[in-house]
Design a protein that fits this description.
Elements (H helix, E strand, L loop, with lengths): L3 E6 L3 E6 L2 E6 L2 H13 L7 E5 L2 E5 L4 E2 L11 H15 L14 H17 L5 H11 L9 E3 L8 E4 L2 E5 L6 E3 L1 H9 L6 H8 L5 H21 L10 H6 L3
Antiparallel strand pairs: 1-2, 2-3, 3-5, 4-5, 6-8, 7-10, 8-9
Length: 248
């Protein structure tokens, strides 16, 4: 009998694996609605939906292996990273989804959130002031006008599965919506800067690398406290705190 493996679990949601079936438990049905609709629309490989019975969504495992994990060396080849870039370009060229995106924020709102988070990080002694100040400066480049595209919204490296030089599936679409293309590229390469050139080669168009680096800082600054509060360790080698230190 297949054992039950906890893939991720925190107070907002949990994902379990039983054999080749993933069970996603989420009381926020709007988030699951987005995931289901996004997988039906996107022009890239996604998991098969087996059934849905709120608050549970059952999906089939995708073939291949994850491109990597944050904090660990990637086993993906340059060709695999380039294939990921090509798949992301295909997604970004797709027609916009009918919903705006769960996390879409205007520049003023984003600045206010970032400044508030930076103040909390320093006041509560979570991170040194000089580290926060430097990365707040770097993050400024990400706060600019951008043309919305169909984005994954949470394109972490472990959400992209590959086999050789082919993308076999992209998972976890609950944050999909209209967003900044460079946010997706930055999320994928967070902590794996050495593969950025491969991704951009596959993406096939010029991008502003300063903006991608700015998103690394911005995403990390906004994520550190949440990660700590939900039982994760952003200070593990290669993770968010190391990403922030790399900007010093």
């Amino acid at each position: 009998m297949d054992e039950v493996k906890v893939v991720v679990a925190h107070s907002e949601r949990a994902t379990l694996r039983v054999g080749d079936v993933f069970l996603k438990v989420d009381t926020d049905q709007a988030r699951i609605d987005v995931e289901v609709e996004a997988m039906a629309l996107v022009p890239v490989p996604t998991p098969e939906i087996l059934w849905r019975k709120p608050p549970v969504l059952a999906i089939a495992a995708v073939p291949g292996t994850a491109l990597g994990r944050l904090g660990e060396p990637s086993t993906g080849s340059p060709a695999a990273w380039a294939a990921a870039g090509a798949a992301i370009r295909k997604l970004h060229e797709a027609p916009l989804p009918p919903w705006p995106g769960r996390r879409r924020r205007g520049p003023d709102e984003l600045v206010a959130e970032l400044d508030g988070e930076c103040e909390l990080l320093v006041t509560n002694g979570v991170l040194p002031a000089d580290l926060v100040t430097r990365n707040r400066q770097v993050a400024e480049a990400a706060i600019r006008p951008w043309t919305p595209v169909f984005t994954h919204g949470d394109l972490q490296i472990e959400h992209v599965f590959v086999d050789g030089g082919e993308v076999t599936g992209i998972i976890d679409w609950s944050e999909a919506g209209r967003g900044d293309a460079l946010f997706d590229l930055a999320t994928l390469t967070l902590g794996h800067e050495e593969h950025l050139d491969d991704v951009i080669a596959g993406y096939g168009t010029d991008v502003d690398l300063d903006v991608i680096r700015a998103w690394w800082s911005l995403r990390s600054l906004l994520g550190v406290r949440w990660l700590v509060e939900h039982g994760f360790d952003p200070s593990a080698p290669g993770c968010e705190v190391d990403v922030l230190r790399s900007r010093m």
